[in-house]
Write a structure and sequence with these properties.
Layout (H helix, E strand, L loop, with lengths): L2 H20 L8 H5 L7 H9 L4 H27 L3 H18 L6 H20 L4
Helix pairs in contact: 1-4, 1-5, 4-5, 4-6
Amino acid sequence: MNKILKIQITLFVILGASFYIFFEPKFHPDSQGYIDYHSMRSVGYSFLIYLLKKNIAYVYLSQIILSIISCFFFLRVLRKIFSINNLSFFFISFVLIIVSLNTSLNILSGSFSFSFYLIFLALCLTSLSEKKT
């Protein structure tokens, strides 16, 4: 494993652990609808909360882990395609992981949506760079 990859993983894990330890999950008016599975809410996020036995700490942790994985995946693809130098890469990494972790503070489906958006965008960029349909 190269040095930059180790630094990136370490940075992401430290930031993720810091967010989990020092910040509380943010509840919004819609959050309770997802937790109690109100019929007006989408099924996916409510089902995840149900699978985690309505333990908000586990939901919050899973959102942070998915944020770290999706940012890592997206940034690897971005660096591979655009050959970004180290300083720019660390700046982009830092900004993206902070935005993603800040989004994962919310007990709403937006956290998973943002993570899946990054994964989808990375797959699209890979497909375009390899000229695959």
